[in-house]
Amino acid sequence: MMRAIRRMIPFGGPERFFLPHNNLRSASTRIEPELTAVRYKVKRGPFATINDAHTSFFSELLGPDRVITEPDECDSYNIDWLRMVKGSSRVVLKPKSSEEVSAILRYCDEAKLAVCPQSGNTGLVGGSVPVFDEVVLSMRLMNNIISVDEFAGVLVCESGCVLQTLDEHLSRVGLMMPIDLGAKGSCLIGGNVSTNAGGLRLLRYGNLHGNVLGLEAVLANGKIIDCLNTLKKDNTGYHLKHLFIGSEGTLGIVTKVAIQCPTLPKAINVAFLGLENFENVLKTFQLAKSELGEILSSFELIDRTSVETSLATLGLKSPLTNTHEFHLLIETSGSKLSHDEEKVSNFLEKVMEQGIVEDGTVTSDPSKVKTIWDLRERLAESQTKEGYLFKYDISFPLEHFYTIVPVLRDRLKDCNVRFITGFGHLGDGNVHVQVNTSNYDETVNSMLEPFIFEFTSKFKGSISAEHGIGFKKSKYLHYSKDESAIELMRLMKRTMDPNGILNPYKVIC
């Protein structure tokens, strides 16, 4: 048995290289979806229709180069990257400052023009594209890094900064972003904050409610709210920043953020393990928490179908010789390589000796660490390569983490389904469930919704673990929120946005 463990310590097999990572926007080449308003039978709200006078005001405010009205160019802002929803906006605005955002919202509020804030448009619930003809407010040009306090570990930046750009900037002073997403090369930090994005290392660093120290936001009436505090302790009244974190642009538009950034680890180890049943997955997680403790930073589960899809559609190669029913990607992050490697080695010895893990490989080499992580981070890309993807982001108590997948396979066995997969962040109970069909299939949709949300609610889970409610889940909110909580949310919306112009049809129906 000891020899088997020693074979795990090097990265198994020869060097392997993956195909270049495509931008999420180009992950699918399928035909355009039907208009959201038509497919989902949505009634347009009591908003004004944009006219020449409106566009003239915006052009005077921003200049013609930052007001997009060309239909072909507008279309890219009307469709989400999953090609699941489609709006019909014919005006896209690109502000460069909080003051410009303020002027736009003040004008839109007075004119009763609905507004759809948009960051990187990498969301999965239709929250970042218009439903009808809302004015799209693209935050991409507000991308300045304002300051980095390397002693306190605090970054202040505008909301249009790309997550990966921030992470690379911080690495120069030995810091890192507290979140890491598969869409990091495209998503913007303002969108991350507005959806309270979770990601791959929430197990270690927590969510954005705990890492955002302060922010600046603009209300629907154009008023700028300055809560851009950089202190780690500030207990002076209501913590207003939390109103905007996770509110998906329905209460205000985040324009600047101050984020607490952890120290960049000096030692990273990644293990990729193969297991034959979910019971052993849970045993491995329990042992990892016990043996790896303070250095455990990620614990990701990938099922057999997910791995096989990646290998087939993207030409990737698995770090393991064989494919197993379940695969675990376990990452540790620490400050001393020898210390961490000893802990990882002891952990692997135990899971092998107890017969919990069948196969595995581990590495601390940066290029090989990236190779293993690419397999996990490109799962969404591989599963949207062909066909239409029904994608669900839900969370369960750990013992029921994977239960929904075999249930759906049985429920949809007579439908035109290409595959059903489950993967995700087992460390925080967040499973991503994918159902792939050749094209959008209304029969499959009716079999999935609201069943999947009813099932989740039955096990005291959440219908949205990290991607928000957006448009797609707004009518199912009651499966995770009590009516008393929903009514308070409605009251907050009416108070802060009385005309309802901010991201209508989203979150609260």
What does this structure look like?
The chain has a seven-stranded antiparallel β-sheet, sandwiched between helices. The chain contains 19 helices and 16 strands. The chain has about 500 residues and is of the alpha+beta class. The longest helix is centred in the C-terminal third of the chain and has 17 residues. The radius of gyration is 23 Å and the shape is globular. Helix 1 packs across helix 13 and helix 11 runs antiparallel to helix 13.
Please render the helix and strand layout as text.
Blueprint: H1 2-8, H2 36-39, H3 52-62, E1 67-68, H4 71-78, E2 92-93, H5 98-111, E3 115-118, E4 135-138, E5 145-149, E6 154-158, H6 163-171, H7 189-194, H8 202-205, H9 208-211, E7 212-218, E8 224-227, H10 241-244, E9 253-260, E10 267-275, H11 278-292, E11 296-303, H12 304-314, E12 326-334, H13 337-353, E13 359-363, H14 366-377, H15 379-383, E14 388-395, H16 404-411, E15 419-425, E16 430-437, H17 442-448, H18 451-458, H19 483-496
Parallel strand pairs: 2-4, 3-4
Antiparallel strand pairs: 1-2, 5-6, 6-9, 7-8, 7-9, 10-12, 10-13, 11-12, 11-15, 14-16, 15-16
